Structure formats: structure tokens, C-alpha cells
Amino acid sequence: MTNEHLNTATLAEVGEKGVIAAIQEVAPSSINGDDAAVLTIGPPNTRTVVTTDMLVENRHFNLAWSTPEEVGHKAVVQNFADIQAMGARPIAVLFALSAPPTTELSLVTGIARGIYERIQEFSAELVGGDLTAGDSIVVSLTAVGSLGGSQPPLLLNRARPGQKVIASGRIGYSAAGFDLLKKFGREDVPVEFQKLVRAHCTPPLMPDRGVVARATGATAMTDNSDGLITDLTTMAERSAVTIDLNASAIEPDHRLLRAAELLGKDPWKWVLTGGEDHTLLATTTGDNVSGFRPIGRVIRRTDSPVTIGGEKPKWVEGWGSY
Amino acid sequence: MTNEHLNTATLAEVGEKGVIAAIQEVAPSSINGDDAAVLTIGPPNTRTVVTTDMLVENRHFNLAWSTPEEVGHKAVVQNFADIQAMGARPIAVLFALSAPPTTELSLVTGIARGIYERIQEFSAELVGGDLTAGDSIVVSLTAVGSLGGSQPPLLLNRARPGQKVIASGRIGYSAAGFDLLKKFGREDVPVEFQKLVRAHCTPPLMPDRGVVARATGATAMTDNSDGLITDLTTMAERSAVTIDLNASAIEPDHRLLRAAELLGKDPWKWVLTGGEDHTLLATTTGDNVSGFRPIGRVIRRTDSPVTIGGEKPKWVEGWGSY
């Protein structure tokens, strides 16, 4: 078959071996292809870090708005943010997919290409996976990371009073982008809001922020996946501290304000409960860490696990699965 | 809520945090609960081995026949067989699940309990996962293994002429059990065939067979997941050899013969194309390895990648995803 025919062929027409070969063509790896993948994680002392995320069509992604490449990209960011949030460096991913037999091959190779493009920025490899028929499209990505040295990982229970709270990445953009997509669809979102839409469809993530933060005095880190207040509440409760945010450091910027005006929404809700930004949120005793900005401080536990200028947040609920 | 109420509660009623807490109760681990899990794989030189498998309801398992515990059990065996097939020892699993919000919590805790019971036999831990709503029940399990020492892993391309081919585990039982279940349902399968049904619902897997085989001279290994001929053909083609099986070492035993008679099937089809037995299949220059039996030998490449007593097999097609 020519490439053109392959692109409109279905998974059933191409067959399992053909699909796997097509994935390996867009995401080549010398490790992939045996019963399991063998990884050399690093020098002695290096620990292995693992995490997994499942994305379900029409819940975590919508192919009316997102290209398959973007779905792959987002799956990588979700997983790699979790690896970074331990202070580790992502080195490999496994890609499992369920899809109906009538699915076009180009969808699968598109997701694989998106994964490959994104992991290359981190010098990571797609080392294996699984492929199965199913009624719906479900992507399950697993990331493997490398945690060098003998320092502890960045844990949720290691925030300490007196530390600064720092953040790498926008907050509230993904939720705003999602609301814009629901209102306008991808094509008709006003140009000035494309950055919000991209934050939802292809959330950015800077390599090595977790490693650098751990090397320069951070002790606790998480990522904003379920909502700023929800995720910081988990950290504050595990650490038995209160996290007090500076309102001016997290307040909605001009883009969020204008989008909120257009949609008739409260932009603070996006900021405080939005989730899926995959902003890295850390506590540190060290100096400023490049790529991070200060957004608050850790104090002794008060009535409330997370406060903004000492007050309870206006919005607290985050995203849950059910 | 009392435990009794919890068991009939749905995921939506219990909420994401409640479901995760319930999973951690049946599968406790000190590592689980942060953004990602940090694993100490072993002494210097130890490599990390990873694999993943996705199980879709009504394709890979049927809750009319299998208990949730059995689904968890089978998912572990599928993954751990792949880890063992590299000569490695499984040490951890990640458990991702998509399920409708109306699903009973007891289904999820049942799967988790099945995972936990099975991994304990391997001294492995459930260290993390993901939980999401979706239209169908999809289980995605990832296994992490430890490959000690500097010897190479057991690869598909390392079978060499002159080696023996050895097997650990039954061959054809899972496919026979599946046909019996389709005909009779779980309750009404005649007692004499329960072992075949169990081979399908809870395939056995002996710990450490991969490690022992690697330590005693095996060079190539895979597991019978897609069908004996299919899986050995992959090994033979990657190694550029022919694998010649002894008919008498793989011929259907009395159970398979009687089941075939009852169902009017050819028992050789179960043996040669059945799959899902997760029999470990290795090639070795060493002595007999405990838990394995000889089933053939590796010879120079002939016309056919896999032969039985020098002849082409009667059945060759295996299970594919599409």
C-alpha cells in the first residue's frame, strides 16, 4: 500500500502488526519490540520513578477540537509533569491504546507522532505499549523517570513553614481555553484567545524544572492537574501546614479577564479550580529557581489548608473523576 | 458509611478520593499516593524493565464468567509474564481504570484485591495508578521489573541453533477454557474441566522462572500470549532460526482431548493457536531448568520458522487485536 492509502485505512484493514509497525515508524526506538523494555536508568543510587494516566475520548480530549498529535502531546505533558513533580527526569513512555477496529490508522499514528515530538524535547523514548480493540478510544500512557543522587524526591508531605511557594507555568489558562472551545469550537475562537486554547489542547511543560528545583533547595512539589486549590490543599494537608498565596501573584491576567468578560464567567474560578494546566508548584528554602516565580509562602497550619492573603479562597472545588 | 453500604455504592456516590482510599485499603503500599512512585530497583548494574497491557471488558474479560478478583489476577499474570520473559523479576505495578460512574465500588476494589493477592506472591507492590470515568470498563496495568547483573536480558533475537526449547506452564488450556465458557457459562462447565476454565480466568504463573532460566543458560524467552506458533514464529524470525517442536511434548493431554470431544473441536487448534496461556517459552544451552520441560530444539533456518517434527504446523494463525 502507498502511504496515502495507509492513511485512510482502518486498523482492521492494516492489522495489529501493521499498526505497530506504523507506530514504530513515527516513533522509532531501539528498545521497543520485545516482551518488555529494558531501561538503564542511570548511575548507582539512581531511583526509578513511574506514573500513569488514562485519557478517554470526549472526556479528556475531543477530536472535534484537538488533532491526534495534540492528544499525544497532552498525554505526555500530564505524565511528565508528574515525573517532574518528584524532582525526576522523564526518560521513557509506554503507550497503550484501545480503539474501534473502524478507526483510521492516521488517528493512531497521529497520537504516536504527538507523543514522539513531545518526548524528544525531553530526550525520552517511546519504548513499548499495547494495542487493543474496544468500543471507545482510550489512551493510557505510562512514564518512567530517573531520580539521580541520594537526596529525597520532592514529596507532597515535605512543605515546611517559612518556605516560599513557587510556580512554573500559567494558572487558569487550560480551563479558560476549555470554556472557549465549548462556546466557539476550535476554528471560531477569537485569535486573541488562541493562547488559552493551546494551553488546553497542548499544555506547555518546560524540561528539567523538577530536577533544577530539587537541586536548588525545593522539598515539596506537585502539579496543577485537578485545580490550584485542590492540589495545594493535598500538599498542605500531607505536610500539616497552611499555604498562603499572594493574590497579586495569581490574579487573572488581561487574557483571562477579557475571555471572562466575553463568556460572562468569573476568571478567578478558572485560576482557583481550573486544573489541567500542569503548572509545577513547589515549596523551597532556596533562591529563585529559573522558570519559576514566587506565588506565596508556607506558614504554620491555620484553620484553612490554603489561603489567599490570609483569607479562605472564593472557589475551592476542583476537578474530580466522578 | 458502613462497609456493607460501601460495597453497593457506586463510584459516583463514593467520589474519586473515596475510591482511591478504598483501593489503598485493599492494596496497601507505603510508596503509593504522591504524583508518581519512586522505586529502588536494586544494586548498581540493575536495569529497569517495563511493560503494559490493556484489558477491555467483553473482549479480554467477561464479568458474567469472571469475578473482579479474577480480572485483576489475570491482568497481573499478563504483565508479569512479559517481565519474566526478559529474565527479570517483577517488583511493582500501576493500575489505571476507566469505568462508568454507575459502576459499583465493589467491582473496583475486587479488581484491586485480585491484583494485590497475585502480586504478593511475587513480593511486588501496587504503587500507583489512575482512575477516570468512561463508557466502558478498561483496565490498564503497567508492570515494572528488576533485571540484576550484567548479563543480557532474554531477548527474542537470541535463540541459537543447537539450543533446547523449554516451556513452563500448560499450552492450550486457556483457549479450551474459553470455548467451554462460551458453551456452558461459568456455573455449568462440567467439574472435570474446571482446570481449563481456571486457566482462562486465572492463568497460573510461577514466580522467578525468568530469573532462574537466565541464571542457568537461557538466552531467549517469550510468553505464549498470542498463540504458540505465532509467538515462537516471532522469536524464530527475529533470531533467523527455525524452532522445531516435538509433537509428543506438546500434544493435547487427556483433559484437552475430552473437552474437544465434548465440544466437537480440534484440540490441536487450542494448542497451536490458543494464546493467553502465558506459558514461558525459552531457548537454552544449559541444563534443565526447574519448572520447565523440553518441547523442542532450535535448528538452522529452514523454509518454515516453526515446525513440528520437521513438518509445517496444521494450524498457524494466532490471536490478533483486529
UniProtKB/TrEMBL annotation, chains A, B:
UniProt cross-references to SUPFAM superfamilies, sorted A to Z: PurM C-terminal domain-like, PurM N-terminal domain-like
Keywords noted in UniProt: ATP-binding, Kinase, Magnesium, Metal-binding, Nucleotide-binding, Thiamine biosynthesis, Transferase
Positions bound to Mg(2+) 1: 52-53, 130
Domain PurM-like N-terminal: 33-146
Positions of Mg(2+) 2 binding: 53, 82
Annotated Mg(2+) 4 binding sites: 35, 51, 82
GO BP: thiamine biosynthetic process; thiamine diphosphate biosynthetic process
InterPro entries linked: PurM-like_C_sf, PurM-like_N, PurM-like_N_sf, ThiL-like
Residue numbers binding ATP: 129-130, 225
MF terms in GO: ATP binding; magnesium ion binding; thiamine-phosphate kinase activity
Residue numbers binding substrate: 60, 276, 319
Sites where the protein binds Mg(2+) 3: 35, 82, 223
Family: Belongs to the thiamine-monophosphate kinase family.
Note: Reaction mechanism of ThiL seems to utilize a direct, inline transfer of the gamma-phosphate of ATP to TMP rather than a phosphorylated enzyme intermediate.
Protein name (database record): Thiamine-monophosphate kinase
The species this protein was found in: Corynebacterium pyruviciproducens ATCC BAA-1742
